[in-house]
Each structure stands twice: as structure tokens, then as C-alpha cells.
Amino acid sequence: xxxxxxRIAGNRRQVGLALGKLARPLMSVYLAQSSxxxxxxxxxxxxxxxxxxxxxxxxxxxxxxxxxxxxxxLRMPVKDVLLWNCRGDLLHSTADGCTTVALxxxxxxxxxxxxxxxxxxxxxxxxxVDVALDDAxxxxxxxxxxxxxxxxxxANRAGLVxxxxxxxxxxxxxxxxxxxxxxxxxxxxxxxxATALLRDLPHSGGFHHTLGSASDPRxxxxxxxxGAVSLLDIGTRYGHANHMIHAKTRAQAQIVTESSRDRQNRxxxxxxxxxxATGSADLLAALHDTLGALPILRTDAADPDGENTLATxxxxxxxxxxxxxxxxxxxxxDIALDVMSEPE
Length: 344
Description:
Elements: E1 3-10, H1 12-32, H2 35-40, H3 47-59, H4 61-74, H5 78-85, H6 87-90, E2 99-104, E3 110-118, E4 126-133, E5 139-143, E6 153-156, E7 160-166, H7 178-185, H8 191-200, E8 207-213, E9 216-224, E10 229-233, E11 237-240, H9 258-271, H10 280-287, E12 308-318, E13 321-327, E14 335-338
Parallel strand pairs: 1-4
Antiparallel strand pairs: 2-3, 2-11, 3-12, 4-5, 5-6, 6-7, 7-8, 8-9, 9-10, 12-13, 13-14
């Protein structure tokens, strides 16, 4: 299994501390090989980063406390951990990719499937963290070393599901960093609460959020950028890669890589052939599709975006129930969880 399942419990600082300790053995080597970190270091002590920090502290103080705990666990300066967690707000292009599919079945089930694409160095070096918090529902999330959970794929004990796709926007606006917002969504209990958070807080970076809930029949596609927030109710089926495609946002200045364009075209072609009888096997097959020079399942060491698929998640959402299956590059699940049940 290319990642480890770890349980963490406590208050905000304790959880952040544990996440930092989990990543500490790897972090210095990871950053040393990262071209993203090299580019970020130019932003050290820049007033704009201080402005992002002020927005994060003012709007999401609980998440800021987690970041401080993470810095303590990593034995890194808070300003450097903040810098790493603002990479998509500062740089127009980072090695964070992903493809997401969503489907409503005839029997009322809602499905969200997701390829987590990132730095190939991280293959086999990430975790699936199961976090119990003193003051929030708690959640399960794929965890990159030193990054706030939530910006990958995850779900919380209230039955809220979120998957994230990177958007390479060319805009920068002062606001709450996008990884803080993604983390904060996992503290929400309803879709309405999550979309209000994304809509109402000032945001500095761009993410696509696919959202579902055990207490709500809707599936929502949200393109959240520095210039606009577009919320789309998903009808029956949907696919999204790494650029803005909503009518409200697609004209914004952005970087559309060849991989993202090819994956978007391919995933749209696949989901257009789905019916309400489609199920989990079809979602997994779509996410593990290898057709074309720049396929949906990304395993090429020479990937032009510098990204490989690190894990594949399939969420099944029913009334009062969310199950998660996490796969490597094969059809048998490595981990299967009933997310809304408390861990034993």
C-alpha cells in the first residue's frame, strides 16, 4: 500500500502537532527536491504573505492554530510552513493536479471519484489521516507532508464529502489562502454551510471543489477563484480536471496545460456515456483510464506537469451514510471505510 492510515485525536494545536510530527522525517528532503519550494523561497518575508496570514488568522483562527501546531511538530518556522501552504496562492502553477468525476445513480446514491495527482516524489510517502477533533465533526483526508489536510480528498463525520482540483489562475487577490478554505470546509456540517464559506470569505487562490453530503441529495461543483465563485448543481454526471470550465469563470486568465485539456476532453467523453445504472466500477475505470499520450491515470515519470496519480478515491454517498474506498493503481481497494462511523 503506497500510503499509511493514521488516527489522530485532540484539540487544534494537538492535531496540528501530530500532523507535523508525522511529516517531520521526510519534510527537509521533500522540500530540497521540490522546484515549487525553490520558487516559493523568493516570497519569504514579502508583505503580501503577511497579508495572507492576517486574512487566515482573522477569518479562520482555528485552522491557523492547526498550522502553528504543525510548524511545531515539523520544527520549522511558522512563516515557512505558511509559505508552503500558500504555494497555490503565490505561484501561478504548482505540481498539484487531479481529476474528479461525479454521478447520481437511479437508486438515489451519489458518487464522487477522484484521482489525487501530485509530485511523483510523494508516491508511497503520504498518509490517510483519520482525525478526531474536540470542537468539530472530525474527518478522514489524504495528507501531503506539511500541508493542511482537506486540499486533496476527504469527508467528515457529519457526512460532508470534498474533493479538490488545482486551478492555475493568473490572478492574485489578498484573501484567505485556498488551502485554509479547503481545510475549513471539512469542519462544516451541511452543503449550505460549506458553499456559504466558499462564497463569503475573501479568497486569494483558485480551487475546484466537488461537494456532496449524506444529508442532501445535491452534488455541487464549485470553482472558487480570486475573481469569482461559481456554484453549479451537478445534474446526473460530471467530470473536471485542472482548469476553469464554468461559464462564469472560464474567461478568467488561467494556465491550461495540455494534460489538463486532454484529461478534461477524455473524462467528458467517458461520463457522457454513463447512465443512472452506472456504479463504482465505472467511476474507477474512468479514473484509471490510460488512453492517449496524456491519460487520466498519470504514471509517467516524465509527465509534463510534473505530476503522477498518488491515490484514487471513490465515495459512495447515501442518506446518513458515506463510504470511502481508496485505491492504488489497481482495481482492489487498499482501504475501505465507513466515514460517518466513529473509529473503534
